[in-house]
Design goal:
Layout (H helix, E strand, L loop, with lengths): L1 H4 L6 H19 L6 H17 L9 H16 L6 H12 L7 H8 L3 H12 L3 H19 L4 H7 L5 H12 L3 H9 L1
Helix pairs in contact: 2-3, 2-4, 3-4
Length: 189
Amino acid sequence: MNFAVSFSETPLSQLKEYLSYINTFLSAKMMDTQVHPAYIFKQMHTFQLKINETVQAQELQHLPYEMVRKYCLLVKNFTYDNYSYLIRSVVNYINQHLSSELSLAALASEFGKNASYLSSEFKKEVGDTLTTYINKHRILASLRYFNTTDMSVAEVSNAVGYTDMGYFSRLFRKYVGQSPREYKKMLDK
């Protein structure tokens, strides 16, 4: 990070090149962690777009620090090294397919396991039932959509795998404490 302090006098094109190197370095180091490569590549791509699309050097001054922080958050939030290979695979699959069919039967079929075995192993290792885990993570994903896009409540509901708006609203209220419409209205103020 001391290297990044010297960026204040660097021309934009050279700054972008340095930041691309840092992004590539950090993402390569991430491959040594238990974080699924899909998350790493997505973060790398997001930073690279920001680097490429920025037209003023001062907008990039803080980026090295943001990169380190976000890559560290990936490790914190997506390292499942205390889970068995099976459960780590299931968790990664769920997180990457939130808009898909994620029933116990569908997941058991996807991983070639008996449904009751998968259910009990998941509960034992994660501490939540599969359904609870899926619902929590779908609601967390819906919050990200509400906070980062202009999608309607119906669009967000579909994007996180709920075709029944009433069910989505009930779960949202359970985990967030207000309806999706109230939450969206609060953000629009």
